[in-house]
Amino acid sequence: MTFSLVDPPVLSRNTVLRDEPLRLDTDRQKSGWSSAQVVVVDDKGGTPVSWEAAPAARFREGDAAGWDAAAGSGATLRTRPAVELAPAPPAEAVLLGEAEGVAYWAMRGRPDLVAGDDPSEWADLRAVGAELDALGAGLLTGAVAALNWHERAQFCARDGSPTRPHNAGWARLCEAAGHEEYPRTDPAVICLVHDGADRVLLARQPIWPPGRYSVLAGFVEAGESLEACVAREIHEEVGVDVSEVTYLGSQAWPFPRSLMLGFHALADPEQPLRPADGEIEEARWITRDELRAAMEGGDRAAAPEPGGRPVLLPGRVSIARSMLESWAVAG
Predict the structure, then answer these.
(1) In whole angstroms, what is the distance from residue 243 CA to residue 238 CA?
(2) Is 158 exposed, middle or buried (0-12, 13-18, 19+ CB in 10 A)?
(3) What is the Cα Rg of the chain in Å?
(4) Which listed residue, of 26, 51, 81, 295, carries a Cα 20 to 30 Å from 280's Cα?
């Protein structure tokens, strides 16, 4: 069988114009600062949001899975007028792009208790990404990715000398020799393995909460194609051979700087599963009906066998959830 993503992964939604000429036009940046808005992100990745309704579950800081997305009815990213933060674009600010004539920037910051900020209203991208509209999700994803990179690129990779922000935050300039450094992205594959009919392969890592399962993923190695990485990672993690590797879509995952490239592939469910020691605690095939039940039951459902094990799916902020939902309705 073949299928495609029903909806774009939530962190791939980006509606701002982010063309390079905007980053080079300092006059435009300065003249637009008076009407610009700033996405303020603290050092833990939190930013202020407004909830349309109280979420049923907030992200739990320190959750090993990192996928407990808030289940509210929607959230709005709260930006700050740029002129409240500085009279002109600071060197450390990152120009995220423009939307409807408004320039959006990103800066590090923290709740200002004196100004009346409520720290409990700050949420990170994992918690709130799926609840934001396309503009908010795109802005926060770009802000987190760019600011994370700046903190890890303080020194030139070629000669070790200090670097400084350049091109409205989309490059860093080596102070010794003028080398330019650009934001790094680490490609990772994520693959939904199915039998071509009614079963999908899920696995869980030892550090995840009980019952948490997802599809398989891994980083692309130097000199390796994406398709070869899919085949290698699936075989290394669960001992299964795959075929007909097919691209689905992609999503930024800036924790700190990954790009998730989604695929689906065929495998034989009769081939023995061999979970990799230390990496995969358990792997199992489930049916499409079991997957649908997990989604309908608030992401948790029991397998049909006596004493069945629960299935807790990845949150909506992950591309894994988009892939599973799309496969679930394809049959």
Answers:
(1) 15
(2) exposed
(3) 22
(4) 295
| Contact residues for 115 (Cβ-Cβ < 8 A; gap 6+) | none
- Which residue spans of the chain are classified as CATH 3.90.79.10? 186-328
What is the pLDDT at residue 66?
33
**How many other CB atoms sit within 10 Å of the CB of residue 127?**
28
Do residues 113 and 72 make contact, with C-beta atoms less than 8 angstroms apart? Answer: no
Range 170-179 burial, b when 16+ CB lie within 10 A, else e: bbbbbeeeee
- The overall longest dimension of the chain from CA atoms, in Å, is 69
Across residues 97-108, what is the average pLDDT? 97
Query: What integer is the mean pLDDT of 77-101?
Result: 97
pLDDT tier, 113 (very low <50, low <70, confident <90, very high otherwise): confident
**DSSP tag of 167:** G
Upper half-sphere CA count for residue 27 (Cβ side, 13 Å): 0
Q: Are 193 and 267 in contact (CB under 8 A)?
A: yes
With a CB cutoff of 8 Å and minimum separation 6, the contacts of 160 are none
**Residue with token string 């689906």:** 264
Which residue pairs from 296-305 have beta carbons closer than 8 angstroms and sit at least 24 positions apart in sequence?
300/211
Closest CA to 254 of 24, 19, 41, 5: 41
Phi, psi of 170 (to 5 degrees): -105, 15
pLDDT of residue 2: 83
H-helix or E-strand spanning residue 247: strand 243-253
Transcribe 252-304 into DSSP letters: EETTTTEEEEEEEEE--TTSPP-PPTTT-SEEEEEEHHHHHHHHHTTTEEE-S
Domain 186-328 is classified in which CATH homologous superfamily?
Answer: Nucleoside Triphosphate Pyrophosphohydrolase (3.90.79.10)
Pairing mode, strands 37-41 and 102-108: parallel
**What per-residue string of b and e applies to 67-81 under the rule 16 or more CB within 10 Å gives b?**
bbbbebeebbbbbbe
